[in-house]
Amino acid sequence: MASLRRMEERFRSESYLNSTNRLQILATKTSTQQARRWVVLGLEDLINSGLLENEAISKQKLLGDKHVCGLVALLEFKLRCLGHITDVLMVQAQFQDKTRAAMRSRLSSAMDAREATQTDLSWQGLVEPSAQKAIHFLMDVVYGTRFDNLMKSKVKAGSHPDLLLDIDSISDEWKAVEALRSNELDEAKAKASEDDGSSDGGDDELPCDGSAKGISQALKQARANPNHCKKNSPAYWRSVAGQTVRSYLRILTEASTEKGIIQSVEQMNLESPEFGKSTTLVMCDTSLLGESHGPGQHPGLRKKYSPDHACLEKLCGSTLIALGSQANAKGVSNPADTVVFALVDPGSCMSKQFCRDSEKMAVWVMLSHESVRARKKINRGSNATSQRVEMTLFTEKTFGMMVPEMPRIVYAGYTHGDAIGPVTALAPDKLWRLPRAEKEEILGARKVTVPPGEDPDIEGESVFSCAVLPMELYQEVIHSTKAQTVVDLSPGQGECCKAALALRVPIVAMCGSEAHSQRLELLLTEYIFQEQRRESSTFYRAEACEDNVDAEDEDEKKTTKKRKNESQPKKQPKKKAASKPKPKKKAADEKDQEDEQGEEDDGEEDEGDLQGQGSPLPW
């Protein structure tokens, strides 16, 4: 509305927004509320900057035609490119986190970007030269019109920002940024002797001592560019694993306010699914939001963290609002028409008024008795796990109308069924274990105050002791809901993230603390690194196995030795001695032998003629 008033004050009745048809296009052709606001403010910025005339904005200009896309689709694509450049491309180019944070805070909107690049330039002196070049690249792509004609011919509604580097001119510009950043990294490596051997990475284990410096060093190695590592070395495949994780996973740290959560989710600019064909899945397991009972818990633990209604309303309600749900005085009454909210709430912490107008489908997850007994042996008494886990699906329409029915991919049955089983619960040795001090850093304010135990640092404690549901179940849920994107509000030890990575589905994980988000990235990177060596995995790469790496090293040595031998002058072949004429045979009984010898001589003469210059053949 503010933009509408400003345009009317400037152009009066000639404003492009003074048209019902154009307003309808802006309201219906944008995928989210944030995208709608971005498009309107983007058009206003182009007009104020003199890059677009108010009179030139017509219905056809906004919608486009069958050959080129319109301004609405183009500007929405630029919004996705903004996050893709700062969160994917710059991470792959190994820009520092503080540099990316500075760019995100100052270049998040057109008005702020113009001020940060035209008026207040002091902050650019604090970043690297490659970052300054990346700023110019981002301004040309997102807020300028330099590449608009090229993008219009490639972009369609809902196009992924990976399409950006398929355009040669844009790809060349970004390669120049990467080359400059690569030179900076090489110079830094030469100055710091401690980093000289980090690119070779001969160790199979990722070094991390649990300290802030150790985690930072481990993240630096996991985010390294594979081209800077020795090919097929453990460091090379670990960096490939890190790239795989960052391609599908975006990790957020939970904001302290509802507005902060809404803004952080909207900035992800998730793809809009089509009703009846795909959905956006929002997962939340309230038992994974804090410290709880279970195998490997803290000694002497007698209570568990239970999130209150305000915490869950802030986390779940704000996320649903960011995805298009309408809020009322009592919170969210319904998810959006293409959103499925899956809630696992063993402690009944969620308010009964949450999404009270929505359709609810209870799905029973039946755990196998053997897997439950394995957990009971370690976790006795009232902490024993039940064989039943209830998962509630909240939708605007009935679940049968949301997605088509299909056979399950892991368990028996069909996707519209209300029971899944038998499911093997997570074994105690599969739980994520850390020392108590590091566990408290991850849990933050959601840890439980307990008396000191015997010695919790001997074997470590399980961080999320109540984690029961395995990766295979999350794969089934993602498949059953036809999820195009997953938002995990309780990532825990990353079982849902692993399932999304295995299915190649983009996922957003919202962690409760910065320490949790950093360690989760390392945990998933190590998981993909190990999966690259497991033959039955979808991530399996034969070159990543240790035996193949050793064999390649031997082949390389042999090839090098062979090339050295080839450099020596070749020996000339010896010439054959001229055959002497054979004496004539007089005996009649030797006539047959003469005929056979004559045929052999003819064959030798023919070969000599073909090898020589005087061939009787016309060609």
List keywords for this structure.
Rossmann fold; eight-stranded mixed sheet; disordered C terminus; globular; alpha/beta; 2 domains; 22 helices; 619 residues
Explain this structure.
With 619 residues, this protein is of the alpha/beta class. Helix 5 (71-92) runs antiparallel to helix 6 (97-106). The model is unreliable at 193-202, 560-564, 584-588 and 603-619 (pLDDT under 50). Strands 1-12-11-2-5-7-6-8 form an 8-stranded mixed β-sheet, sandwiched between helices. Strands 3-4 form a two-stranded antiparallel sheet. The protein has a two-stranded antiparallel sheet with strand order 9-10. It has 2 domains: 2-194, no CATH class; 268-510, 3-Layer(aba) Sandwich (Rossmann fold). It has 22 helices and 12 strands. Helix content is 44%, strand content 10%. The protein is globular, with a radius of gyration of 33 Å. The protein has helices spanning 2-11, 20-28, 33-48, 59-63, 71-92, 97-106, 110-119, 129-143, 148-154, 168-191, 212-222, 234-248, 258-266, 309-322, 369-376, 399-402, 436-443, 471-480, 495-502, 514-531, 546-566, 591-611; strands at residues 249-253, 279-285, 327-328, 331-332, 339-344, 359-367, 388-395, 419-423, 433-434, 461-462, 483-488, 507-511. Strand 11 (483-488), helix 19 (495-502) and strand 12 form a beta-alpha-beta unit. Residues 185-194 have a biased composition (Basic and acidic residues).
